[in-house]
Amino acid sequence: MMNFSTNALGGTQTSKENTRPSSKMTVCQFQRAKQRTVLGVLNENELHVRSHSQGSQFSRHSSFTDSSQHTYLGCTSSSSFDVYVEEAREVVLAASGQELVSGNYYLDDESEALKNEDAKLLLELSSSLCQDVSMHSEHNESQMSGEVQRLSEYALDIYWQLRHNEVKLRPQPGYLEKHPEITSGMRFILVDWLVEVVQEFKLRSETLYLAINYLDRFLSSTAFGKRGKLQLVGTAALMIAAKFEEIFPPELNEFVYITDSTYTKRQLIRMEHVLLKVLAFRMTAATAKQFLRQFLLVHPVDATTENLAMYMSELSLLEMDPFLQYRPSIVAASAYCLASYTVSRSLWPSALQAFTGYTLTEVEDCLIDLHKFYIKADRLPQQAIRDKYRSSKYCRVSLITAPASLPFQ
């Protein structure tokens, strides 16, 4: 049986938290640091005069007011309100939205500038993203409400795209037949260890789901894997998933550390290359977590039910048989049903039946298997997931007793 170096997780070395750097550099300053060529820039005095003469509503500030502005094209700096677009030709747009500067050519008439679709887009970005801090705070709630409303228009399209994706990028349920040295118990231990690593590095749950998808798909596409290399494959899969999903993924030496230096940097890089090549760089896999998130948006539930559904969904990652034979959307639906029944004795709401196209009958087999696994979860030798969901952050849902039976059993 594999012996993963989980004791390294409890070491005294300070782990890297997935937090933003403390740099005060603004987007505009960062872009200037890249030595980018700008064809025309309004200096501070010119901007000050023009903004006052035109009754501009913008005020200057030198740092971000919230993390959500980190990805915006527009920004505010202490010197000017400019939007930079890195194309073959640089365009600089004054924040007042009244004047477009391109090289030495000025368009004083806004209506003329709007004839150009690119200029129109820039004007919209400038007027919406470079607002005063107080105005942004005042209208934040209404903007968020509008954003949710707009996203809801695409919810069904997103769902069916995920359904299409889950069929294309799913592992083979019986892939261990091609790996005589690897058993389902070894995979169970590996997944449990990956859960601990994700907790140690404070990574997102979606990173865990993706890593296990990469692991299973890799083993489905290869044969005669060595048991001594299974942890290496799992670590490389998590490293790739973190790069794909996290804003600030752990560094290479940190992944070496969590394996207790069982593998070198060179081995990890090589395995990363092999894994990406085998998966043909198809990394946008649909996971049960993504489906469950959509279900909870369509039909919200209380915090306890939501966390319990997340807990049951993660439990399904541990067992190959039977859960790999079910599509992630079915697993997510089963987790939702079981959590809802455990807390409030309801199962599959009509709203989700209409949204997903799944009837309770189609979910029933997976629901029964998940219920059986939920009942025995407290007796499993590996307890990383139960320990995770025992905290108050997740409403201590792993301590909730499973129902003795389901209504249709």
Give the helices and strands, then pairings.
Elements: H1 27-33, H2 44-53, E1 82-85, E2 91-94, E3 100-102, E4 105-107, H3 110-113, H4 117-129, H5 133-138, H6 140-152, H7 155-168, H8 184-200, H9 205-220, H10 230-245, H11 252-258, H12 265-278, H13 288-298, H14 303-315, H15 328-344, H16 350-356, H17 360-376, H18 384-388
Antiparallel strand pairs: 1-2, 2-3, 3-4
Helix pairs in contact: 8-9, 8-10, 9-10, 10-12, 13-14, 13-15, 14-15, 15-17
Describe this structure in words.
InterPro entries: Cyclin, Cyclin-like_dom, Cyclin-like_sf, Cyclin_C-dom, Cyclin_N, Cyclins_cyclin-box. Residues 192-277, 290-372 form the Cyclin-like domain. Belongs to the cyclin family. Cyclin AB subfamily. With 409 residues, the chain is mainly alpha-helical. The protein has three domains: 27-146, no CATH class; 171-278, Cyclin A, domain 1; 288-399, Cyclin A, domain 1. It is built from 18 helices and four strands. It has helices at 27-33, 44-53, 110-113, 117-129, 133-138, 140-152, 155-168, 184-200, 205-220, 230-245, 252-258, 265-278, 288-298, 303-315, 328-344, 350-356, 360-376, 384-388; strands at residues 82-85, 91-94, 100-102, 105-107. It has a four-stranded antiparallel β-sheet. A hairpin with a 5-residue loop joins β1 and β2. The protein is globular, with a radius of gyration of 26 Å. Residues 5-115 and 118-150 have low confidence and may be disordered.
